[in-house]
Write a structure and sequence with these properties.
Number of helices: 17
Mean pLDDT: 88
Distance between the termini: 17 Å
Structural class: alpha/beta
Largest sheet: 6 strands, parallel
Strand content: 5-15%
Helix content: 40-55%
Oligomer: single chain
Number of strands: 12
Shape: globular
Length: 390
């Protein structure tokens, strides 16, 4: 069976790799993988059509700035699918890119099409699900409350769980070793600064984070800062840090396999007393290591306007949304201000246990019984394709 996958960012690459591993384990036929993905998917046997970083763009202004380039990448991908004629097309998140590809392919060739990560119709633009029903046949949902939204729009959908919920807390000896290697004593408070995995996010958030770091350390001398640099933005992060007055521990993927880097990232998170993070999947990764957090995110003017008028929920943090509580502070758009963020971080440092029970509750809701999320997703794909044969 020829499987064409498209992932457009690091979180999608991780999901894609877990799905591929599940398919290799469960599929009753030989598999051939092709498409667009990152290093984790390549480790599972994918040869990417082009680098995943080419399409890792978020925000209306950022997309418009790369419109011609992205349009060409969409065309490249569509032509590749039409040439290869896969048995199934699996698009993974990144809807601005992947769903355009799926729609254009369906206009010229019928390919069974599955989308992994349901669109957030419960948060904004609810009519998207109905429009998708013309070119997406099945959806793999990460959250248990999503299938009814999709089914009402006429698309079959299975809840397959989220791989983050299966991650174990790192060994405490490895956590202790990391702190010792970086000369952190018991009184030092380590805060992870996580400005995202896309260049547009880093460019917008790093000036804010720089101001936050200076303000924090002026008030609490025992605060130390670590930045875990996503591979795609490692170089621009290190360039930006040259302007900082604050000494920062920087953790990168130098000389590490992708799997080892993911393990190291979990150790770093577990070593931290707190995190300041961009919105997104990272909030679940922090929850998996029981690391309290504050969320900060900003966007361009056009994206702010769209966000303001179309958003249908009062939180963008996944832990808050899944638990239906608003325990994790968020500073989004015009509220993404250093003074507000600093106040919240200091408050969380002084009350470190408040968030942890909510994190545990959220992760339990993301587990699927009887299998890992990768296996559950693979079985959903296989079962769907088998039903199409009858």
């Amino acid at each position: 069976m020829k499987v064409y996958l498209i992932a457009g960012e690091p979180s999608g690459d991780k999901l894609g790799a877990e799905l591929m591993a599940g398919l290799i384990s469960c599929a009753p036929y030989e598999l051939e993988f092709c498409g667009v993905g990152g290093p984790l998917m390549e480790e599972q046997g994918l040869s990417s059509l082009f680098p995943i970083n080419d399409i890792a763009v978020m925000g209306i202004g950022e997309i418009l700035a790369k419109y011609s380039f992205l349009k060409e990448r969409i065309k490249n991908t569509v032509n590749d699918i039409l040439k290869l004629k896969p048995d199934v097309l699996i698009t993974i998140d990144a809807p601005e890119f992947s769903l355009r590809v799926a729609r254009m392919v369906r206009q010229k060739l019928f390919v069974n099409t599955i989308h992994y990560v349901a669109p957030t119709v419960w948060a904004w633009r609810p009519k998207r699900a109905k429009r998708m029903s013309g070119y997406v046949d099945h959806i793999l949902a990460l959250f248990p409350f999503e299938p009814p939204y999709m089914k009402r729009a006429g698309i079959s959908c299975d809840f397959v769980g989220h791989p983050v919920a299966e991650e174990k807390l790192p060994d405490r000896h490895l956590v202790k070793k990391f702190r010792q290697e970086h000369e952190l004593n018991e009184n030092d408070k380590l805060i992870a600064f996580l400005p995202g995995s896309r260049r547009s996010e880093v460019d917008r958030l790093m000036p804010v984070f720089r101001s936050v770091s200076s303000n924090l350390i002026s008030q609490r001398l025992n605060i130390k800062i670590v930045i875990v640099a996503a591979p795609a933005v490692k170089n621009i992060l290190q360039e930006s840090l040259r302007e900082w007055e604050t000494r920062v521990i920087v953790v990168t993927n130098d000389d590490l396999s992708n799997n080892d880097f993911q393990k190291l990232k979990r150790i770093v998170f577990a070593s931290c007393d707190l995190a300041l993070a961009a919105s997104g999947t990272v909030s679940l990764e922090l929850a998996a290591t029981e690391t309290p957090m504050v969320i900060a995110y900003d966007m361009g003017f056009l994206s702010r306007m769209v966000f303001r008028f179309l958003i249908r929920v009062n939180s963008v943090n996944l832990v808050n949304l899944i638990s239906n509580q608003r325990i994790i502070p968020e500073f989004i758009g015009k509220n993404c201000k250093p003074d507000k963020i600093v106040h919240a971080l200091l408050n969380e440092l002084d009350n470190p246990t408040v968030q942890k029970s909510v994190m545990r509750k959220s992760l339990e809701l993301l587990k699927v019984s009887g299998a890992s999320s990768g296996i559950a997703a693979a079985n959903s794909v296989i079962n769907f394709l088998e039903t199409r044969k009858t």
